[in-house]
Amino acid sequence: MFRYSKLGYVALNVSDAEHTAEFYREHVGLTRSGTGDDGEQFLRCSTDHHNIVLYKSDSPGVKRIGWEMENEDELDNAIAALSDAGLTLNQVPRDECKALHQGRSVRFTEPHSGATFELYSAINQLRGAPFVPTVAKIQRIGHIVVKTPNHEAAVDYYMNTLNFRMSDIISDKVAFLRCFPNPYHHTMGLGNGPRGMHHINFMVSEIDDIGKAIHRLKKAQVAIVHGPGRHPPSGSIFLYFLDPDGMTIEYSFGMEEFPEQKARKAEYLEARSDSFDYWGAVPDPRKSSYGSVEILGPLIEELEAAK
Ligand SMILES: [Fe+2]
Questions:
Q1: Cα(270)–Cα(178) distance, integer angstroms
Q2: Overall pTM surpassing 0.90 (yes/no)
């Protein structure tokens, strides 16, 4: 199999890239790192050139999920293993890699959620300009959660084909997956439902980041749609709020880490409200209700039919 390094970045489709970039800078606490030729907005919360890219679109949601591989050899291993599994991988044209400030990159359609996955091992490091936290001490882009039908088959696919490990699962509602051997409880979540975006997460460094955000976001009239609360599976303290298009963003503090060897087995939790939150916070119906997944390639139904 092949080895990931981390969730590198998420590209989002948004109705107004400039306006949303300003929201991410001012209210989420990311740093802007440039504008692309088509007006796409690059933002970061690390020395990576980007951890979020915003593209203008009429249908807001997830455009692409970028996974950093451990090194070039692991990128090759992934390409070989995924091609063997029947996926079509497309090299990102050299000009586009250059515009993205990334090394060699490949893309394929993850056939369950329909999300475009991009694999790369090198991204420009802005070492001369380290990320300086502003409104929140963001540690990293934490995870992305998408919804998919045929949940059980999708989870199997992530474990057997995409080389993820399951950390925990709440019945048939949501599976928390980590890109092996990245230690964090989940870098990806799969919710059960019609294909679409669920939320995107940023990990923060202190409980104060959550507390301060409640007051700061309220003052700025940003809709808080769930929390504060504490997720039993990962132990994270969370706060969910909406971006200008209505997509759900999460801050969370604290997360279990797994060793590469002899990790504990996944726990199965019942689909009860206290499996989602110890503290009893009631989600607003707008939470995770908006955002599509841009689907470019064949879905699992089509791949199976072609067999
Ligand atoms: Fe989350």
A1: 20
A2: yes
What is the distance between the alpha carbons of residues 135 and 29, in angstroms, rounded to a whole number?
A: 5
| CATH architecture classification, 138-293 | Roll (3.10)
Strands 105-109 and 90-91: antiparallel
What pLDDT is stored for residue 209 in this prediction? 98
Instruction: Say how many Å lie between the CA of residue 38 and the centre of ligand 1.
Output: 30
Q: What is the CATH architecture of 4-120?
A: Roll (3.10)
Is residue 240 within 8 Å of residue 227, measured between CB atoms?
Answer: yes
17 CA to middle of ligand 1, Å?
23
Parallel/antiparallel/unpaired status of strands 31-35 and 138-148: unpaired
How do the domains of the chain map onto residue ranges? 4-120, 138-293
Q: How far is the CA of 96 from the centre of ligand 1 (A)?
A: 30
Same fold flag, 4-120 and 138-293 = yes
Q: How many other C-beta atoms are found inside a 10 Å radius of the C-beta of residue 170?
A: 22
Residue ranges in 25-118 assigned as alpha helix (H): 72-84, 94-99
Backbone torsion region of residue 175, taken as left when φ is above 0, otherwise alpha when ψ lies between -120 and 50, otherwise beta: beta
pLDDT per position as a tens digit, 30-60: 999 999 999 999 999 999 999 999 999 999 9
Return the CA Rg of the chain: 18
Strand partners, 141: 202
> Contact, 115 vs 61, CB < 8 A?
no
Is residue 207's pLDDT more than 90? yes
**Which residues have their alpha-adjacent CB atom under 5 A from ion ligand 1?**
201, 250
Q: Give me the pLDDT at residue 262, please.
A: 97
Q: How far is the CA of 211 from the centre of ligand 1 (A)?
A: 17
Strands (E), 234-303: 237-242, 248-253, 267-269, 292-293
Partnered with residue 147 across adjacent β-strands are: 191, 196
Q: What is the whole-number distance in angstroms between the Cα of residue 217 and the centre of ligand 1?
A: 18
Contact (CB, 8 A) for 222 and 215:
no
Q: How far is the CA of 228 from the centre of ligand 1 (A)?
A: 12
